[in-house]
Specification:
Alpha-Beta Plaits, 4-stranded antiparallel β-sheet, about 15% strand, globular, binds uridine-5'-diphosphate, binds magnesium ion
Length: about 140
Amino acid sequence: MFTPYFKKEFTLIMIKPDGVVDGHTGAILERIEKEGFQIRALKRLVLSESQAGAFYYVHRERPFYGELVKFMASGPIVAAVLERDNAVAHWRKVIGATDPAEAEEGTIRKLYARSKGENAVHGSDSVENARLEAGFFFAGLDLLS
Ligand code: UDP
Ligand code: MG
């Protein structure tokens, strides 16, 4: 990821197929801006299974990997790079726990997730992974000024 113009930290987020198909894209984008993030890159696309598998390669040995890959390739997603102070940790707080049953009230997963697997949104878990994941979806030319 080509990042010399970022002034603050950034994270890579996805609205997963359930979030898009269930009609929550607008509400989630509105929440992103309300939380003080700048949307620096944004696109909607459908991942192939091999692309979804590559994104989640780190989980390849986990029992849920096959199901996760199929789900992530089952429909459109929205991917975005969000800039803000403390972007990685703040987004993780805004989305809540992986399982919506364990997520705090008002978090995006509590509000919109269907289940632990189909849980509406993704967020990078570290600054280093944000850089890798942003580079998976976007090139420097895609950054919004
Ligand atoms: N996942 C799942 N079952 C599990 C754990 C995770 O289906 O027991 C899926 C879920 O969609 C999750 C993704 O795999 O968001 C990646 O898992 P991770 O532990 O990284 O959770 P996250 O960082 O998304 O909260
Ligand atoms: Mg994770």
